[in-house]
Design a protein that fits this description.
- The protein contains twelve helices and eight strands.
- The strands form two sheets. It has a four-stranded mixed β-sheet. A four-stranded mixed β-sheet has the order 7-6-5-8, with helices on both faces.
- The chain is of the alpha/beta class.
- The protein has three domains: 71 residues, DNA Methylphosphotriester Repair Domain, CATH 3.40.10; 48 residues; 143 residues, Double Stranded RNA Binding Domain.
- The chain is elongated.
- The two termini are 35 Å apart.
- The chain is 46% helix and 14% strand.
Length: 294
């Protein structure tokens, strides 16, 4: 039986849970349970039984809360036999929610409220599975959103708020060590700038790091040199791009060595794993006096 504290769901949470129950979504198994007022029985979201009307359903984050409310466990899906979600499934669920929802939902408190899991549990799950903190992952996701908005033609002031930066000062503070140029220069595709890049094998993939004299401006993961060079040229179509065989290559080699071996985590989307890995590599490439914002 689950032992976490019951956190009553709000309106947004119940919509998510109801949809998961309708779809019998395995990802939510053990995250919540639903009780049916007309039968007095509570079930797991993947229970094969026919779904009741929405107004007959109550949601619970733990089994003992359902039983305290007078519901009996379903004999078909056996909710008391299911364990709480492990770190991998928990991180998968959190990443899915953050990618689907607006930036306003990308806070630890909001995420925990939505899935009924405590902050320490989420933090430990991210550290254990992706080797980044929850805040680091959100920061990487925010930067990714910001860059995509600029590539899509948004002006800097619109993109910074849409991506979740609270102010222009936070934007410039967070992106100073991650763009290697001003946001306006990035929006113009690096026009008039010189961008060097270095390629190196890392496990079963290739890594490409790109930098200007101001700092690292991009990092790519791929399976071939041609794929990475094309990605670089698409990101900086108006820059002077050339391959580096000196300082940048040495920094990339040292950074990858410091990270050690890395393996894919079964059960986690590649997008989440690649985002976390890019953040870790960028962090390793920063000068010792600098830091990658979370």
């Amino acid at each position: 039986m689950a032992t976490q504290e019951h956190i009553p769901p709000g309106e947004a949470e119940t919509r998510l849970q109801w949809n998961a129950a309708l779809e019998r979504d395995l990802l939510w198994d053990g995250v919540f349970f639903f009780g049916v007022r007309s039968t007095g029985i509570y079930c797991r979201p993947l229970c094969p039984s026919r779904r009741p009307r929405r107004n007959q359903v109550r949601f619970f984050s733990v089994t003992n809360a359902a039983e305290d409310a007078g519901f009996r466990p379903c004999l078909r899906c056996k909710p008391t036999d299911v364990a709480p979600p492990g770190p991998v499934r928990l991180v998968h669920l959190v990443c899915m929610l953050m990618e689907q929802d607006t930036e306003a939902s990308r806070t630890l408190t909001t995420v925990c409220d939505r899935i009924g899991v405590g902050p320490r549990t989420v933090q430990r799950a991210f550290q254990r599975t992706l080797d980044v903190t929850f805040q680091e992952y959100v920061g990487a996701l925010r930067l990714q959103s910001f860059k995509a908005l600029l590539h899509g033609g948004s002006i800097v002031t619109d993109a910074l708020y849409q991506a979740g930066y609270g102010s222009s000062s936070q934007l410039y503070s967070d992106t100073h060590s991650l763009l290697g140029m001003t946001p306006s220069d990035y929006r113009r595709g690096g026009q008039g700038l010189s961008v060097d890049y270095a390629l190196m094998e890392y496990g079963e993939r290739l890594v490409a790091a790109a930098a200007t004299p101001q700092g690292v401006c991009a990092l790519f993961l791929g399976s071939s040199a041609l794929e990475l060079k094309n990605a670089l040229r698409q990101e900086f179509p108006n820059a002077r791009v050339s391959e580096d065989s000196g300082t940048l290559l040495e920094r990339l080699q040292a950074g990858l060595i410091s990270l050690g071996a890395t393996n894919q985590v079964p059960g986690l989307p590649d997008s989440a794993q690649n985002l976390a890995l890019r953040h870790r590599i960028l962090k390793a490439l920063q000068p010792s006096s600098a830091s990658v914002p979370a």
